[in-house]
Amino acid sequence: MSHKRITYTVPRMGYTYAAFESFFQILGYDVIIPEPTNTETIKEGVSNSPEYMCFPFKILLGQFERVLEQNPDRYFKMVSLESYGPCRFGYYSPLYYKILKDKGFTNFEVVNVEGIYPPLYRGIPRFFKKLIKLTGWHTPWTVVKAFVIAGWKVYATEQLEKKLYYLIPREKVSGSTERIFNGAIEKIRHAPNKVKTIKKILNEELEKMDKNPHVERDDLPKIGLVGEAYILMDYGNNLDIEKKLAYMGVDVDRSLRVTNWTLDRLIKTKYHKAHMLEVNKGYLDFFIGGDGQESIMNTILYKKNGYDGVIQAQPFGCLPETAAKEILTKVSEDYDIPVLSLAFDEQTGEAGFVTRLEAFVDMIKSRRQIKADEKREESVTVKS
Amino acid sequence: MSKQVALGIDVGSVTTKVIFVDEKDEIIEGLYIRTKGNPIDTIKAGMIEAYSVITSKFGDIEVTAVGTTGSGRQLAGVVVGADIIKNEISAHAYAAIHEVPDVSTIFEIGGQDSKIIFIRNGAVTDFAMNTVCAAGTGSFLDHQAERIGVDIEKFGDYSLRATNPVRIAGRCTVFAESDMIHKQQMGATSEDIIAGLSESLVRNYLNNLARGKELLPKFVFQGGVSENIGIVKAFENAVGSEVIVPKNNKLMGAWGVAMLAKREVEITGQRTNFKGFKVTELEHKTRVFYCDGCANNCEVYEVIENGETIAYWGDRCGKWSNRLTSKVRRTERADRRQSEEVNSEK
User: Fold this and answer.
1) The pTM is what?
2) Is 3.30.70.1400 the CATH number for B3-91+253-282?
3) CA within 20 to 30 Å of B139's CA: A111, A354, B39, B202, which one?
């Protein structure tokens, strides 16, 4: 162990990075959040990864590398989320370690977080061992406090995000809600570490956004987003797909959020799995790694909740999502819900991407039109 | 009275289409030119040429609506002042439904994209577009024609003359090319290779885009590649039914967007945004720079007309693109959008 000051760096996940930052700050460490995905980080990541590796890995590698490069005088603990199972996600942290060591960096170690996996008598000790490796030794009270505050901050950012995407298609002056939202996110980020204050700030900001002049309407087309967690949750990776759809006048909902993802994976595992098996019956009833099973479940659930279309966002070459994509073709036929699969790769040209989104939204609108016409005809025939 | 026309511009990756339609939605003049490196100059050249042809035919004209589509639609829309900037899928579907009202499946292969559009009862119900792979698009055929030394226009005739088409891997252009070279060195004739290429292109297209979805007649095949009779025949063999190639197969996108623009102007009841044919004399420049306002490092594009910036795009936060549109105009636009939706619901 070097004498340099220990600093944590965590993957940037959309707007929720503020929560991870406060988590480690409460434990008394320095935190450096990587810059959002941009051409520079992608370039670094892509040039240093194996070509067939998942795109999220390349993004994260690029981000971490930039952090290490810019701060040679610190000792880093890089936090990596890990899953176990058949997909490549399980190999992320050893690969980071190898690649970065080969690049000549010495001032870092990789620590990873995992869920509690069965059998429980082995899973629980394993989880706590990893947790202690991650946080170091602290009084349990501090760790609990850090978890609670981080949880609240994640919750607050997600509530703000939901509000933002609800209001964008309804606002009178386009762009006005986003400005309030950006201020609100900053406030949450710098909020003092007390649950009460976070709650207060959240309520104030939500009210402020609500007061922004807008027209209430419930006839907007609804689109749900499913897909790989990291691509879906970070706006830098998916070219801001949610905001783009919202500005096109669509009610958009994202199926995976940090809160429900962690709850489902770490705490409610048993219930979550049983629920998934029930919904996915006949399509995919075993674990294929990543979020493949969730993608299918959420598509079906979206249909049942009256959504008009689903967009599947996947990193190019992601195994679970590629498998899910083929099954989704069948789901789409059986449940009569259009599904658009978008593969994200290192190309940042938005022209083709926006074309597909626009065409999808156009199509959804025309489908709604047809349904409305059919309903009207039916009611006419009943009357006559 | 001067003749009232609508202008449709489709700036594709390889070619640019400029067309004029009359009151009855018929194409009265259509141009098909290569985009080359500079789309703005191509559009201007196309407009000048089309304008001179059309004025010699009909005398004075008045442009009532302008629409742009294709991958360069944003740029074209800003430069000429478009009433509607529409994605090519909607534009293509609109034109195809206009031409063949009971169409169910549209195949469209252009320079860089290939798409399949499913229509039921005159409305788009599903579509698919090629993702990161460019196998089986016009650019690839173009490249191969050049390599074999056959004119791309004669490609179709060559494949019709083939007696024994060879099998070529169609998944990836790089492998397709090495496969073709291998077969050529083994002694296959150009005819057989070209026919094999057409077949593999269609096979790859149907595998990649249709992906087991139900293909119902009538089929319409449009886009630049539909000029190629060999590929049309390969499609007919694959789907086992007649494939209609509309008479304006290459201009469908521009035609569709011109009609959509007319409808848009009718609905909103506003005057067209068209800047007039004087835009061809103005000087347009584009500039790319990296914004250093935050860590996003967005690539921002700037369009300059006679020294004055007329558009920005590419920024994520709206710092640049919001600079030009004042609040008032933006509210107007939001209202307009609403009234349009209300109208279409009626």
Assistant:
1) 0.83
2) no
3) A354
Q: What are phi and psi of B120, to 5 degrees?
A: -130, 130
Q: What is the pLDDT of residue B176?
A: 79
Crossing angle of helices A120-135 and A140-167, in 10° steps, is: 90
State which amino acid sits at residue B283.
E
Q: Flag if B132 and A348 touch (Cβ within 8 Å).
A: no
Minimal CA–CA distance to A34: which of A69, A10, A6? A10
Q: How far is CA A358 from CA B56, B91, B96, B138, B344, in A?
A: 38, 11, 18, 23, 17
Q: Does B330 touch chain A (CB under 8 A)?
A: yes
The two structure tokens encoding residue B123: 């409305």
**Is residue A297 within 8 Å of A227, Cβ to Cβ?**
no
Of A173, A219, A332, the CB nearest to B330: A173
What are the tokens at A118? 């069965």
| 3-state secondary structure (DSSP) of residue B54 | helix
pLDDT band for position B133 (cuts 50, 70, 90): low
Say how far apart CA B172 and CA A81 lie, in whole Å: 34
DSSP codes, B100-131: STT--EEEEE-SS-EEEEEEETTEEEEEEE--
In B, which residues are within 8 Å of A244 by CB distance?
A: none
Read off the pLDDT of each residue in A64-88 and give the average, rounded to a whole number.
83
Phi, psi of A5 (to 5 degrees): -70, 135
Q: Considering the domain A218-384 in this protein, what is its CATH number?
A: 3.40.50.11900
Query: Quick one: pLDDT band at residue A152, thresholds 50, 70, 90?
Result: very high
A39/B113 Cβ within 8 A:
no
Cα–Cα distance list, B143 to A94, A219, B14, B60, B174 (Å): 43, 48, 12, 42, 12
Instruction: Give the chain B residue whose CA is nearest to the CA of A372.
Output: B345
Q: Do B123 and A367 touch (CB under 8 A)?
A: yes
A188-223 pLDDT, tens digit per residue, is 999 888 899 999 999 999 999 999 999 988 889 999
CATH among 3.30.160, 2.60.120, 2.20.25, 3.20.20 for B285-345: 2.20.25
Burial class (CB in 10 A: 0-12, 13-18, 19+), A268: middle
B299/A39 Cβ within 8 A: yes
What's residue A85's pLDDT? 60
CATH architecture of A6-137: 3-Layer(aba) Sandwich (3.40)
How far, in Å, are B30, B42, B64 from residue B16 at the CA level? 11, 7, 21
Q: Does the CB of A345 have a partner CB in chain B at under 8 Å?
A: yes
Q: How many CB atoms lie within 10 A of CB B236?
A: 15
- For residues A177-206, one letter each, b for 16 or more C-beta atoms within 10 angstroms of the residue's C-beta and e for the rest, the string is bbebbeebbebbbebebeeeebeebbeebb
Query: Measured between alpha carbons, how far is A223 from A249 in angstroms, rounded to an integer?
Result: 11
* Contact residues, chain A, for B89 at CB < 8 Å: 355-356, 358-359, 362-363
Cβ-contact B277, B66 below 8 angstroms: no
Parse chain B into domains and list their residue ranges. Answer: 3-91+253-282, 101-245, 285-345
Choosing among A181, A216, A311, A356, which should be mutated to test the B contact, i.e. which has the most B CBs within 10 A? A356
